[in-house]
Amino acid sequence: MSLLELKNVYKIYGELHALDNVNFTVEKGEWVSIMGPSGSGKSTMMNIIGCMDKPSKGEVLLDGVDIAKESAKNLTAIRRDKIGLIFQQFHLVNYLTAVENVMLAQYYHSMPDEKEALEALERVGLAGRAKHLPSQLSGGEQQRVCVARALINTPEIILADEPTGNLDEKNEEIVVDLFHKLHDEGTTLIVVTHDPEVAEVAQRRIVLRDGKITKSVVNENFTGKIRFS
Amino acid sequence: MFLRMIRGTLLRQWKKMLMIAFTIALGASLASAMLSVMLDVEDKVNQELKTYGANITVVPKAASVLNELYEVEGGEASGAYLAEGELGKIKTIFWAFNIVDYAPFVNVNAALDDGSTVKTVGSWFNHHMELPTGEQLDAGITSLRSWWEIVQGAWLDEQKEGDDADVCMIGTALAKKLGKSAGDTLHLTGSESDRSLRIVGIYDAGGDEDDQIYAPLNTVQALDGLDGKIDSIEVSALTTPDNELAEKAAKDPGSLTVSQYETWYCTAYASAICWQIQEVITDSVASPVRQVADSEGAILEKTKLLMILITILSLIGAALGICNLVTASVMERSSEIGLMKAIGAQNGAVSGLVLTEICMTAVIGGVVGFFAGFGFAQIIGHTVFGSSITMRPVVIPIVAILVILVTLAGSIPAIRMLLRLRPAEVLHGGR
Amino acid sequence: MKKRQMFLRMITASLMRRRSRMLVALLSIAIGATILSGLVTIYYDVPRQMGAQFRSYGANMIFVPADTAFTEQDVRQGAAVIQAADLVGIAPYRYENVRINGIPVVAAGTDMQGAQAASPYWHVDGAWPAKDGELMVGAKVAESFRLKVGGEIELSYTPETRTQEELKTVQDQTCTYQITGILDTGGSEEEYVYMSLPDLAKLTVDDGKVDVAELSVSGGAEQLEKYIEQINAAVPAVTARTVKRVTASETTVLTKLQALVLLVTIVVLALTMICVATTMTAVVAERRREIGLRKAIGASDKSIVGEFLGENLLLGLLGGIIGSLLGFIFAQQVSIHVFSSSISFRLWIVPVTILVSIAVTGLASLLPIRSATEVDPALVLKGE
Lengths: 229, 431, 384
What we know:
The complex is a heterotrimer. In chain A, strands 6-7-8-3-9-10 form a six-stranded mixed β-sheet, with helices on both faces. Chain A has a four-stranded antiparallel β-sheet with strand order 2-1-4-5, covered by helices on one side. Chain A has helices at about 40-50, 70-80, 100-110, 115-125, 140-150, 170-185, 195-200; strands at about 5-15, 15-25, 30-35, 55-60, 65, 85, 155-160, 190, 205-210, 210-220. Chain A contains seven helices and ten strands. By secondary structure, chain C is of the alpha+beta class. Chain C is built from 13 helices and twelve strands. In chain C, strands 1, 3, 4, 5, 6, 7, 8, 9, 11 and 12 form a ten-stranded mixed β-sheet that branches. In chain C, strands 2-10 form a two-stranded antiparallel ribbon. Chains in contact: A-B, A-C, B-C. At the B-C interface, α2, α3, α11 and α13 of B face α2, β4, α5, α9 and α11 of C.
């Protein structure tokens, strides 16, 4: 069974078909990037996969559960347990230190554990900046805190929305390297981006246009450990 | 463009602006309500203190010397009286408007049928006067003796009965002694004539009056043939608490300089009003009743001071409240302002925009608040004193200055914070 | 680490690191609480304080003999029934007919200190008599006999018990006194001369008799009635009565004054509380994005409401504590400046202030928190 399966998904805002009969599957451990120009439905799809929105029609099966039929309250629980989110604008709580921001995710998930949180920061190379406030961190560092926060609860899927949109080249590289590491450890990654460089390192990339999947390309040169034929 | 941006903010952020305007309106209404009440409280409490009765008595000059001393020996001294015809003049003095009530008194020792004599007092009860100024006034002891408790019957209604009608009121002690009750008649013999008076009411005054008879002025005058003559006048006037000048003047108005005299004469001191009464009533001596006049002064001063302090507290509260909200709401807009700075707005332009918006909101809120506050003041006036609070123009500039100052003061820390903002931080540093 | 610890850590972090905004909120709550506790304290103290001011109207209770006469002893006994703190002044009076240059005048013997306390409106030119052989005369007496402060005056007394025969032969008792002051009241007191009770006894007959006693007692009309009942029961020689003119009027005016302070308090409080509420709303509304973020990383609505409310309730508690302290200081200052006496501390106002602050803060922040949690996190996070 696939980890995530979208079957005939529509999202309709009045006249506008933001998603128009989308069918899409993600296997466990896969690294998929979603591309497309503005207004292609990327964000809508991301919100639906991230349990922040529901489709107008169709099924979204996550681990065999149709999240389109769940209540808002259950969606929050599913998001908490199965999904780690990374945003373009980082979105850290500005009065909490890096480690506290990571612990926040633990807090809502189960039990805050400072040691674990520090280990997560170490994984993203920020062990020395744990006690800094977001305003004292550079953009790349902030995004790495977000990555640490996203993976702290070992989610089924890490969902990143334009993770490199606000980063310079050097930091972009660091974040992409992190994705490689996560992928090697078996984490499922879905990265929404319009940066071809970021998209092309993924195992598979799909292209959205006017709410439809127009292209699905498997990366022949993929260098990661885990492969799908 | 500037105007367009402001209009844009006001239209699009109307919810937030409405909240600021609302708070400013609250603060302004608080300020104007409290100021109106504070400025009027002296007059209102002064009116209330009138329940203590007259604060000025007027007696004939000759009588003032030894009248009651002789009384100890030989009963009522004859001689000096005030003229009833001059009573109306009291409402023509400089401070006529401050004279809220007055009543003439004439005392006669009348004999009852059993031979005993009783002090019979003639006065106004609710005497109706039409003044040349067009003002109407019901004066007399019905209001000057408000603490009398009517045990039986009712207050004598002079307007219904006429001022020489054969009616009277008697004290409880006398009623008990004579075994009379309301509705009975009492036969009184004076030195000139005798009359049978119907008792319309019995009062309990808790004092010497309980042994006396009160009847309309002309009725009592007729008993002793004292037509047109009165013994004393009690005047209830709204006065300003005495100060040094008033005390100096009370001793000898001649000792004042011309300008001091003018100040004194044109201030509603008890001594100034006494002086003016003496000017219009021939051969009279008017003096303040210290028990009432002095106490009034003390209580008025305390009440006023209390209200001033409460007003100051609420003004500070209102000021800080507005200040706070303005600060909070300007801070909230840091990302918008960061964007403006990012696209090249100068600090001056940003501050100007924010200030203009806030000030426009403040003006709207202030105007609404002023009228609301005046409404609050009226509610207080009507509930507590049963009369409306006078609108004083001086409240308007005070509230206006307060609102503007406070709004600006509230914006300063926020604007300083905004100026320190680095646009990159706001736009990139996810809050 | 326990969940609760993290909860506390987040709240303290929010309070400490968002200092300027938290100060804004705290300040606003503290102002509200100050006004609340200050005004309520004043409101409850006004009747007592103003009541004391009304004592300047003089005696509100008098003792008259139940039969024909009573003694100073009876008066003291009656006054003992009244609590010392409530008794502002007591002045026994004894009146005798005496003569100045053969002309009759009423002489009143009294306790000068008592009279001064019971009739604070008496205005004396010169000084109150302090020693034996000193007296003060009413303004009218002074005028008719052309008496001056510092002058001397001879009073003569004819005992009523003398027969016609004796009147012709026996000399009147006479005494010479020093005039220390001239009394100005605007009332009938101006026609008397005042001296101490022992002085009057020396001139006349020392029988300890008193005609009337005037008392100035603080307390409302009900309290006075209670005292009168007790006195009439305890001391049979004395009949106590209220001076209606003073008590009835005092009740009327005091009731109005208290109503005034009450209404002012209500208006000020209502407006202040709304002010606090709007500020809290603004402070919370600012954090919509943070609320969205917390939702996105999996916080349930309940836990968000719990955290934000917890933080604001803590603010309410702090503000309430600060406010009840400042409010008391304010009320104390008002009392000292207006009434020159300190205010009585009412302990119950402190918890009430704190509870009201917490309630207002809680309610004011609950609405914006709720509305923020209802918003789709995706929308909030997408930015404005």
